[in-house]
Amino acid sequence: MSAGLGAVGSGSWLKEFEQCKELAQEVVQLIQERNLKYPEGGQDASRMTASARRKIGTLGTLIEKLVRALDAPECATLSESEKNRRRDLLYELRNRREQMQHSIKRSAGAAGRNSLFEGASGSGSKPHVTKETDATAELETSGLLGLQQQIMSSQDQELEQMEKAIGHTKHVAIAINGELDLQARLLEDLEEDVDVSHTRIKAVTLRVKQVLRSSNTMRFGCIIFVLIVALVASLLILLKVYRLFGL
């Protein structure tokens, strides 16, 4: 059956649609045969799955071709109600195609694919199964392995970047620690200088007190000396007066 994109007239539209229905039925039978013959998967199951997916892709192309044909000049003679009826037929066929795609994802033949998502957590423990995503649903076993390797490579790169970041952080921490040690030593030296300066200030203060005390003692001694001299002078004067008057 041709999957070309040539023009589809109103007379050949229904014929093309019937061919699409037959292709859809072939895909359904192929999936059922695979599930019955190879429920546990394997190379033969993978080949049948790949064939079913190719047919589903071809079916999608033909459906889109018929959708565009309804708006083409070749179908201008059709009434609007007839166009809507045919659009409904295509809508149902699209839904059937989507169901076939989901059937491939959920079929029993996916047991081999699921093993790629299982990770044993130890002997005697239940394995952890990761759900299949939209990114993996359309891939075959080889594609899953390639995607898994790509993800692992990406994770390795992220780990290398994290390792570099941790190493840089370690170097920064070491530099900060060295700076803190230097500041601590500077503070210790400053404390020692302060203690020495304090000791010197105390010594100078004591010396000043001693000097002031000595100055006060000398001043007091001078006063006593002056008083003694004055007393002696007074006595001499009294003695002269006594001799003068013959007392």
Structure description:
With 247 residues, the chain is an all-alpha fold. It has six helices and two strands; from the N terminus they run ααααββαα. 79% of the residues lie in helices and 2% in strands.
Helices and strands in order:
Elements: H1 10-37, H2 43-69, H3 80-106, H4 111-114, E1 118-119, E2 128-129, H5 134-137, H6 141-244
Helix pairs in contact: 1-2, 1-3, 2-3
The strand order across the widest sheet is: 1-2
The multimeric state of the shown protein is single chain
The gross shape turns out to be rod-shaped
- Computed CA radius of gyration, to the nearest angstrom: 55 Å
**Average of the residue pLDDT scores:** 77
Quick description:
This protein has helices spanning 10-37, 43-69, 80-106, 111-114, 134-137, 141-244; strands at residues 118-119, 128-129. It is mostly helical and 247 residues long. A two-stranded antiparallel ribbon has the order 1-2.
